[in-house]
Amino acid sequence: MNGMxxxxxxxxxxxxxxxxxxxRATGDQxxxxxxxxxxxxxxxxxxxxxxxxxxxxxYGIGDxxxxxxxxxVSKLFTLALALAHGGDTVWRGVGREPSGNPFNSLVQxxxxxxxxxxPFINAGALVVTDRLQTMTGxxxxxxxxxxxxxxxxxxxxxxxxxxxxxxxxxxxxxxxxHFIASHGNLENPVETVLDHYYAHCxxxxxxxxxxxxxxxxxxxxxxxxxxxLMSRSEAKRVNAVLLTCGTxxxxxxxxxxxxxxxxxxxxxxxxxILPGRAAVCxxxxxxxxxxxxxxxxxxxxxxxxLSGCSIF
Length: 312
Ligand code: GLN
Known about the structure:
By secondary structure, the protein is of the alpha+beta class.
């Protein structure tokens, strides 16, 4: 399958089998996130993967229909919705350069005067959540509604136990939010922004739900019902920021191995986009040092390597 020409149809069943085998071979490498205690209760050996094509085909393997905590994967949707509502105004308060620092780092924010490097580190996601709150009056509700509608899953929701656990152990996020506020870069009260941030991070969704919800990026901005969420060039920009910043300080390694725009979360999910073809999501709770799922990155690496299909 190597060197697959751009227009050729991929055999996703075969690719998912091979990707799942590669993921399982990672064994017990990595550690489940436990800095949010409620996340540590997950089965570390779970693995699922799904593909939703732009033509409406859906494929899955393993635990692909089992909900997990989406965590930072939600940041893809907060950014997309903020851009859809507010356009370029969003970029006044947040940059779009890779941070080269861990996702919850405080250091850069001080030297850069409260303007976070990009929308996918925690500091940047807090700013985007704040703007979405101003635009919609209910940032977490807007994300939840979008995910429900695109996935066709009305049961998709925030897990209140995870949200409460995040809030209880959220000293770093609270510090980031207060610091940003001290620079005048939050429009809403810190407590409101943190509540909505925790609520969208604590959404439970499956690989199935996430590929359907993310497939607007594979369709260059067009939603599942055929309406447009954002312009083609905005979709290009979101994909570009996903490629350069979506997997934190391991974005270079992710581009090297997988070669796709993608967003990871400490719940172990990674949602990646094959522009013009499909959205792909893999999930395995064990994380590497940067906070990316060992099994999910390995599975995506196998999928693009075997198919010869990436953005490069
Ligand atoms: N809610 C998590 C946090 O704020 C999200 C982090 C992540 O998935 N990288 O720490």
